[in-house]
């Protein structure tokens, strides 16, 4: 079986088309609402892929460091924004982000956490790179029982309990933690025809001043 990295390196060129069938703009709208986005700030997009979050942040006037394990996904992202200095693409792991301590105002991770081996370590890393007062916003899948996602999409986890996410945020030293729902599901089907429509949560936390 191939690894998650090999999987995303293989599907990089197709991800935009796949993503449109999985979830909609509503995820990004809600993530930006809870983050209270302001222009001229610095953000990291963890597991940025081809730029679902990054592209919209650039459009709102932020500087973005896009981190992903997959060079192919990042190449597709860079090709969309060939000339901007506001985008910095870095190959790296969510559990060991290639970003300085206390250097950014926002950290986003959309549909990345369920691919990561040690999610609490990824949350700690996101907290490490935030400036005091900065925010982490994670959008991901609620717990589900569609095991085909582990094999066909290389998911590592079958979603998360919201209480577990809350604990990981608090353990990482974040405050004003809130984990709520979005009026949106992630929809897909297995090769065998099993259909999944999985609810999506949005989690936000702030690094203390
Ligand atoms: C489901 S895609 C989501 C991409 C993008 N965030 C979006 O919303 O379209 C998951 C992305 O996370 C990346 N990823 C998975 N595990 C990772 C890890 N441990 N470190 C960094 N990136 C990772 C994958 O390469 C892939 O680009």
Features of this protein?
binds S-adenosylmethionine, about 30% strand, about 210 residues, 7 strands
What report would you give on this structure?
The protein is α/β, with parallel strands linked by helices. It is built from eight helices and seven strands. A seven-stranded mixed sheet has the order 3-2-1-4-5-7-6. Helix 6 (119-129) packs across helix 8 (162-171). S-adenosylmethionine is lined by residues 4, 8, 19, 47-49, 52-53, 68-70, 73, 93-94, 110-112, 115-116.
Which percent bin holds the helix content?
Answer: 25-40%
- The rounded distance between the terminal residues' Cα atoms is 45 Å
| CA radius of gyration | 16 Å
Strand order, sheet with most strands? 3-2-1-4-5-7-6
Secondary-structure content class: alpha/beta
- Percentage of β-strand residues: 25-35%
Sheet of most strands: 7 strands, mixed
Number of strands: 7
Unreliably modeled segments:
none
The helix-strand sequence is HHHEHEHEEHEHHEE
**What integer is the average pLDDT?**
94
The hetero molecules present are: S-adenosylmethionine
Shape: globular
Question: How many alpha or pi helices?
Answer: 8
